[in-house]
Design goal:
Order of helices and strands: HEEEHEEHEHEHEHEHEHHHEEEE
CATH class of one domain: Alpha Beta
CATH architecture of one domain: 3-Layer(aba) Sandwich
Strand order of the largest sheet: 1-2-3-5-4
Radius of gyration: 54 Å
Number of strands: 14
CATH topology of one domain: Rossmann fold
Structural class: alpha/beta
Distance between the termini: 198 Å
CATH superfamily of one domain: Hypothetical protein af1403, domain 2
Strand content: 15-25%
Length: 381
């Protein structure tokens, strides 16, 4: 006996996914809470992708959000934060993949702290506590470096090793205090005040290693931030990892990405100083040698000039004397006689006027060579 063939409704994959997408799309306005993981964003992507994870069971839900909406979140959302997400379910028909399309993301727990810190940051920024013109330069060669860190903290060893290796001559003043927990902010403020008041401390390093958001909250306390801004000596903040940014970083004079980097910032490197000193000494020696060589040459030239000066002066005087002799010779009466003139004397007086002698008077006539004695026969006035 033949069995009747049952009629069945068979869908193609595309048709089934389309019907499923229509059904899933009706689920809207749903709130889902979880921890942000696998956050992926790119400036060229239209959407941001993340995964919500249930801490208790490990269950995961893929979430997408329009990048423009995501970028409006302040501060920027990071992995590990607990959030509540509002949106709707959607199905990617081509692959049959279910995801949650988010329209709103609100922080929960730590997120509340982050929002409060953002409000505090804006208020302190408006007061000018983070202004760049308040930042002070660090001393080039500090007499003593103050280090404020946690008790037995790894950051202490990093800073101490970095400073003593680079610049052993500097004195370290270390203050260990509570750096996390409900009373940490007050302890940090007290320790910072005492450390800055120590004689010779020219700069203070505020150091703490990495930790969770909650662990670093004391360094964003308003009391700590104001104490850092009011510190009488420059402060280098080295709190957390490079991606962390507690508010004390903004109030400090210099922010170091790590405690080890802070050590490099506050003290010079002795080896580099020695090398620079050696180069300066070489330049100084070379400069002195060049100056001495120049002065030696100038002295030699002066000696030559001084040796030749007497003979040159004598030659100049001789030439001047010869010129004077020529001029005197030209003015001499004998030079006039040599040209055919004569000097007539009547007694001891030179006759310049014929009326000065009488006819018959005897006169003496001096010639260029020899002379004549004569008697005046006629006087012609």
């Amino acid at each position: 006996m033949e069995r009747p063939v049952e009629e069945r409704k068979v869908y193609t994959v595309a048709a089934f996914n389309r019907r499923l997408a229509n059904y899933v799309g009706r689920i809207q306005g749903v709130w889902v809470e979880g921890e942000v993981t696998e956050l992926r964003r790119n400036p060229v992507w239209a959407n941001v992708f993340l995964t919500l994870k249930d801490r208790a069971t490990g269950a995961c839900l893929p979430v997408t959000m329009q990048r423009g909406r995501f970028d409006l979140l302040t501060p920027v959302l990071a992995e590990g934060e607990r959030v509540q997400v509002n949106g709707r379910l959607q199905l990617y028909e081509a692959r049959g993949e279910l995801s949650f399309r988010a329209t709103t993301i609100e922080r929960v727990g730590v997120g509340d702290h982050a929002a409060a810190l953002e409000r505090l940051r804006r208020a302190l920024a408006e007061e000018g506590l983070f202004a760049s013109e308040r930042k002070r330069p660090l001393p080039r060669f500090p007499r003593a470096v103050g280090l404020l860190t946690g008790v037995d903290a790894a950051a202490r060893g990093d800073v101490v090793a970095g400073i003593t290796t680079r610049y052993p001559a500097v004195r370290l003043v270390i203050a260990e205090t509570r750096v996390q927990g409900p009373n940490a902010a007050n302890a940090i403020v007290v320790a910072l005040s005492r450390l800055a008041a120590c004689d010779g401390v020219d700069v203070v390093i505020l150091a703490r290693g990495g930790g969770s958001f909650e662990d670093l909250l004391p360094f964003s306390s308003e009391r700590v931030v104001r104490a850092v801004a009011a510190c009488p000596v420059p402060i280098v903040s080295a709190v957390g990892h490079e991606q962390d940014e507690p508010l004390c970083d903004l109030a400090a004079d210099v922010r170091a990405p790590t405690p080890t980097a802070a050590a490099r910032i506050v003290v010079p490197d002795l080896d580099e100083l020695s090398a620079a000193l050696a180069r300066s000494r070489q330049r100084l020696d070379g400069g002195v040698s060049r100056v001495l060589e120049h002065d030696r040459g100038r002295l030699a030239r002066s000696r030559e000039r001084l040796g030749a000066a007497p003979a040159l002066l004598l030659e100049r005087k001789r030439a001047s004397l010869d010129r004077a002799a020529v001029r005197l010779q030209a003015l001499s009466p004998r030079a006039t006689l040599a040209r055919g003139y004569a000097i007539v004397r009547a007694g001891d007086a030179v006759v310049r006027d014929a009326r000065a002698v009488a006819s018959g008077s005897r006169v003496e006539i001096e010639l260029a060579s020899g002379g004549l004695g004569a008697r005046v026969e006629e006087v012609r006035p």
